[in-house]
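Example for tutorial group B:
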C-alpha cells in the first residue's frame, strides 16, 4: 500500500524585511544562519507570493494566514477580532462583533507601547477583570487573553467603524487614531475610562518602579462578525493540525476544523520555547497528513526594532523546527513549505504588503541556493493570489 504523503508548513511570522545597515546591508533572512531553510530552497522551488490582497488591508496576519491556509480573504474575512474569538470558542451570534483589545501604554496623548512592555498574563488578567467589572454593560464584555492580547465583544454591535492597530501608531498622537464611524462614541469613552481606571493601579505603580511600561489603557481594534470557513478536511481531503501560540492563528485553525495543539512554553514572543514547538510538530506529523507551525517571534522583534533579536528568532526556527521536521520526514513521501505571512520591517516597526518569499519542496528544483527575499525575486516565480500557493503545495 502506498504511504500517504505528509505536508508541513512553517510560518516565521513577519520574517520578511528590507536590507538593514546594522546587518551590513542584508535582510534578517540573509543575515541568519539557517541551513535547513536554505536546504529546502535548494531541494525545491523558491518564489514570491502575495499574501495580502492589494485591495484589502491594513496588512496583517489575519489576511495573510487565511491566504496561506488556502482561503480567499475576499470570500471569508470578517475581521481580526472574530478570528481570535474563534480561538477561545466564545459563543457569538451572527450579529455580534468581536474586537481585539490590546492593553497598551499611553501617556494620555500618544501611543507609547502597543504591548505594554509585554505585560505578564497574570497582571493582564487582573487589569482586564477590573475593566470588565467597571466598564462592561449588558451588550459589551471584556474577555481575557494572553499577555497584552484580549477581546471585547459587542452584542449586536457595529462594523461600519474604522479602528487602527496599535502597533501601527506607536509614537503617534491618539487623537488622530481614535475609532471613527458607527459606535465611535462608546468606544472612545471606553478608551479614556480605561486610562482613568488603570493608570494608577497598584500593578502599574509597581511596573513603573521596576522600570517597565504600565498597562494603562485598553485599545479596541480589528472588529468583525463571526467567521465561517469550509472544513479543511472536506475542502482538501487531509487531516490537519496547527501549532501556534497566538489566538489569531489558533482561531483561523479552529474555524477550519484543524486540530489546535497547545504547547507548554509557547508564548508568542522571543521567550517562546522553540524546541517544544518543534517536538510538537514532529509528533503531530505522525498523526496528521498536514501540519502548520506558526512562530510569532520574528514579528515581535521587528515591532520593537530589534534586528539582532529578529535574526536570532529566525535561526531558532530553523534549528528547532525546520531541522527536526526535515529529519522526521526524510525517509517518507512529504513536502515542506517555509513562508512568512507578511513583511514586518525593522525601519517602520510595522507590517508591509510586498510579496513574501517562499521555499517549497516537491516540484523539480530551480536555481535558488538560499531562502531570502532576493533569491526569491531572482527566480521570477510569483503567485499573485496568496490562497493559490496551497494549491501548488498540495498538487
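The residue assignment follows.
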Amino acid at each position: 500500500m502506498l504511504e500517504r504523503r505528509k505536508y508541513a508548513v512553517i510560518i516565521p511570522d513577519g520574517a520578511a524585511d528590507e536590507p538593514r545597515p546594522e546587518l551590513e546591508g542584508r535582510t534578517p533572512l540573509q543575515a541568519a544562519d539557517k541551513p535547513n531553510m536554505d536546504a529546502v530552497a535548494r531541494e525545491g522551488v523558491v518564489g514570491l507570493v502575495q499574501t495580502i490582497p492589494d485591495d484589502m488591508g491594513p496588512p496583517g496576519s489575519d489576511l495573510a494566514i487565511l491566504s496561506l491556509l488556502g482561503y480567499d480573504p475576499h470570500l471569508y474575512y470578517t475581521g481580526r477580532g472574530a478570528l481570535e474569538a474563534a480561538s477561545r470558542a466564545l459563543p457569538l451570534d451572527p450579529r455580534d462583533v468581536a474586537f481585539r483589545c490590546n492593553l497598551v501604554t499611553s501617556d494620555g496623548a500618544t501611543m507609547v507601547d502597543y504591548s505594554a512592555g509585554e505585560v505578564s498574563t497574570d497582571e493582564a488578567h487582573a487589569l482586564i477583570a477590573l475593566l470588565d467589572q467597571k466598564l462592561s454593560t449588558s451588550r459589551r464584555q471584556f474577555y481575557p487573553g494572553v499577555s497584552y492580547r484580549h477581546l471585547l465583544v459587542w452584542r449586536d454591535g457595529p462594523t461600519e467603524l474604522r479602528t487602527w492597530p496599535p502597533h501601527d501608531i506607536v509614537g503617534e498622537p491618539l487623537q488622530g487614531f481614535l475609532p471613527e464611524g458607527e459606535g465611535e462614541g462608546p468606544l472612545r469613552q471606553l478608551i479614556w475610562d480605561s486610562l482613568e481606571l488603570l493608570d494608577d493601579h497598584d500593578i502599574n505603580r509597581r511596573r513603573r518602579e521596576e522600570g517597565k511600561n504600565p498597562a494603562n489603557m485598553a485599545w479596541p481594534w480589528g472588529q468583525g462578525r463571526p467567521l465561517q470557513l469550509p472544513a479543511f478536511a472536506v475542502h482538501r481531503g487531509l487531516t490537519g493540525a496547527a501549532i501556534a501560540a497566538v489566538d489569531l492563528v489558533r482561531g483561523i485553525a479552529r474555524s477550519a476544523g484543524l486540530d489546535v495543539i497547545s504547547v507548554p512554553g509557547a508564548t508568542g514572543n522571543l521567550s517562546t520555547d522553540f524546541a517544544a514547538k518543534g517536538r510538537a510538530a514532529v509528533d503531530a506529523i505522525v498523526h496528521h497528513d498536514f501540519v502548520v507551525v506558526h512562530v510569532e517571534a520574528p514579528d515581535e522583534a521587528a515591532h520593537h526594532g530589534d534586528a539582532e533579536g529578529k535574526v536570532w528568532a529566525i535561526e531558532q526556527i530553523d534549528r528547532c523546527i525546520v531541522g527536526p521536521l526535515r529529519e522526521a520526514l526524510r525517509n517518507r513521501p512529504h513536502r515542506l513549505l517555509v513562508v512568512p505571512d507578511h513583511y514586518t520591517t525593522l525601519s517602520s516597526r510595522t507590517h508591509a504588503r510586498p510579496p513574501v518569499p517562499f521555499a517549497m519542496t516537491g516540484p523539480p528544483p530551480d536555481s535558488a541556493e538560499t531562502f531570502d527575499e532576493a533569491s526569491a525575486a531572482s527566480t521570477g516565480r510569483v503567485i499573485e493570489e496568496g490562497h493559490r500557493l496551497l494549491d501548488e503545495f498540495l498538487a
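The chain has 15 helices and 17 strands. Compare this with the pattern of hydrophobic and polar residues in the output above.
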